[in-house]
Amino acid sequence: MKNINIREAVIEDSALILHFVRELARYEKAEHEVIATQADIEKSIFGKESTVHALICEGESAPIGFAVYFFNYSTWQGKNGLYLEDLYVSPEHRGSGAGKALLKYLAKIAVSKNCGRFEWSVLDWNEPAIKFYESIGAKPKSEWVGYQLAGEALTDFSKSYPVIWKHKVEEGAV
């Protein structure tokens, strides 16, 4: 594809972003886990206090993919990093260079912001993505295993602290 355009997403892209999120979840066999609404996307990506950014990838003037990212921090490097939360290109446009264009765009953002690293995660069964990432020079992390608290486990754990801690959190002291 000759004409790939990448642009910053705007709030009017919220429905499109949610559409791509659902396509990605379907590909990852987890569509049932998507609970986000268009209003959630509007608030979390484009809201006043958002720390999240999104890109729209267009080919021949039509949206064909997206990326969502944010900046994290490395105490060891003393620098921010860029974390790619999601990157998705519609199946009919894979192999067009759109994914590589999105990654290059994000790498340029990371370099321009003096980030010490650019990182993301990939499902261990997603061989096409793994091969693609390795073809551009990305290396898998070793020794580190990702963990997360979500849903009821997160809520339960947050309530397990003493009342004084809860009080500080509610007052914004933390």
Q: How would you sum up this structure in a few lines?
A:
This protein has 174 residues and is an alpha+beta fold.
Structural commentary:
Helix 3 (98-112) links the parallel strand 4 and strand 5. The protein contains 6 helices and 5 strands; from the N terminus they run E-H-H-E-E-E-H-E-H-H-H. The protein is globular. The mean pLDDT is 92. It has one domain (4-142): Gcn5-related N-acetyltransferase (GNAT) (Aminopeptidase). It has helices at residues 14-27, 38-46, 98-112, 127-135, 151-158, 163-170; strands spanning 4-8, 52-59, 62-74, 79-89, 118-120. Helix 1 (14-27) packs across helix 2. It has a 5-stranded mixed sheet, sandwiched between helices. The chain is 36% helix and 23% strand. By secondary structure, the protein is of the alpha+beta class.
Examine the secondary-structure arrangement and name the CATH architecture.
3-Layer(aba) Sandwich
CATH superfamily: Gcn5-related N-acetyltransferase (GNAT)
Task: Kindly name the structural category.
Answer: alpha+beta
Q: Tell me, what is the CATH class? A: Alpha Beta
In whole angstroms, how far apart are the ends? 49 Å
Which fold does the CATH topology refer to? Aminopeptidase
Strands across the major sheet, in which order? 1-2-3-4-5
Strand content: 15-25%
Number of helices: 6
Shape: globular
Model regions low in confidence, pLDDT < 50 over at least 5 residues = none
Mean model confidence by pLDDT: 92
Report helical residue fraction.
25-40%
Number of DSSP strands?
5
Largest sheet: 5 strands, mixed
Note the run of SSEs as H and E.
EHHEEEHEHHH
Overall radius of gyration: 18 Å
> How many domain modules?
1
